[in-house]
Amino acid sequence: MFRGCPVIPIDFNVLIQAITGIVNPTAMLRNKLERNETVIRLLKQFNLSPDSPPADFGGVYAYTLIEYGVGKPKVVLELFRQPEIRQALQAAWGQDNFSVLLQVGEGFLEGAALGHELQALGIDVRQEFYQFATVFIAIAKRTRTPGDILTAHQLNSLHRQIAQVHERLERLPSIEGIRTEMARLAAQSVLALPEASGAEQCNAFALAQQMRGWFETLGYRFEAYELWQTNAFEWIINIPVRRGRYDRVLV
Q1: What distance in Å separates the CA atoms of residue 83 and residue 114, rounded to the nearest whole number?
Q2: What's the pLDDT at 201?
Q3: Could you tell me which residues come within 8 angstroms of residue 62 by beta carbon, excluding any fewer than 6 positions away?
Q4: How far is the C-alpha of 151 from the C-alpha of 52, rounded, in Å?
Q5: Is 206 exposed, middle or buried (0-12, 13-18, 19+ CB in 10 A)?
Q6: How far is CA 96 from each of CA 79, 110, 186, rounded to the nearest angstrom?
Q7: pTM of the predicted model as reported, rounded to 2 decimal places
Q8: Do 115 and 208 belong to one domain?
Q9: Count of C-beta atoms within a 10 Å radius of residue 98
Q10: DSSP helix/strand/coil, 131
């Protein structure tokens, strides 16, 4: 049995009005404490527990809108109300397969009038989509974690864990880096964020995520070996040179 809150229907029109009705959202983005307090207040207002994951797709969707959406302009949140995006989210949730979300999302963003409108306003619509999807995946993974295998670390407040996801996203300079973070979360059977003692403390963390995204796009493979230091990191990657053959390279 999964941990979660009672399933309570949510009026998403009212929810988005509540999120976008915040006074001075830009200042709130600069004040993390104020933003966190607002997120917690909205979660409770819509019967979502900051400490426990919701039990159904509607709850995960609402939780993601709040965690991602506080401080965002309404036109950005409208993107995630589009039937195509919501159906892709629900399909990814139902199948526990988040690749469908990327496929549908990319296709929708290419042709959607709203996507072009956001681009005209100077908003990177793909980056917003990937950030939203990353938060959604993190919440969905926590929801699907059976209570009897949650460690003490994972029993931390869900809101605090998602706050860590936000901090990681802020340090990722590119869509490639965000996609890599999405892939890492999606590959986990449970939500487990890296400890701050390793990669998180490396000053080159953002560069590493960007490089990983580039390498994965090129079809390079990553071995399990990783070394993280304050100002440096190491990987071993496999570079395809001919069919079935790879060169091992220390980066």
Answers
A1: 13
A2: 52
A3: 10, 12, 15, 46, 48, 54
A4: 14
A5: middle
A6: 22, 25, 9
A7: 0.65
A8: no
A9: 24
A10: helix
Q: Are 68 and 156 in contact (CB under 8 A)?
A: no
Instruction: Return all residues near 233 (Cβ < 8 A) that are at least 6 apart.
Output: 199, 202, 204, 205, 208, 226, 227
Both tokens of residue 7?
A: 């399933």
Among residues 145, 169, 193, which one ends one of the domains?
A: 193
What share of the chain has pLDDT > 70, as a percent?
75
What is the distance of C-alpha 157 from the center of its chain?
A: 17
Name the nearest CA neighbour of 84 among 46, 19, 118, 129: 129
- Examine the pLDDT at 152 and tell me if it is beyond 50: no
**CA gap 97, 161 in Å, rounded:** 21
Which residues lie across from 42 on neighbouring strands?
Answer: none
Question: How far is the C-alpha of 186 from the C-alpha of 139, rounded, in Å?
Answer: 11
Stated length of the chain: 251
CA atoms within 13 A on the CB side of 130: 19
Q: Whole-angstrom Cα distance, residue 220 to residue 27?
A: 41
Q: Collect all residues with Cβ–Cβ distance below 8 Å to 23 and sequence separation of at least 6.
A: none
177 and 198 inside one domain: no
Please give the structure tokens belonging to residue 2: 């999964």
Greatest CA span in the chain, whole angstroms?
58
Helix/strand/coil for 233: strand
Q: What angle do CA 161, 147, 54 make, to 5 degrees?
A: 60
Q: Is residue 2 part of a domain?
A: no
HSE-up of residue 147 (Cα within 13 Å, Cβ side): 8
Residues 56 and 144 reside in one and the same domain = yes
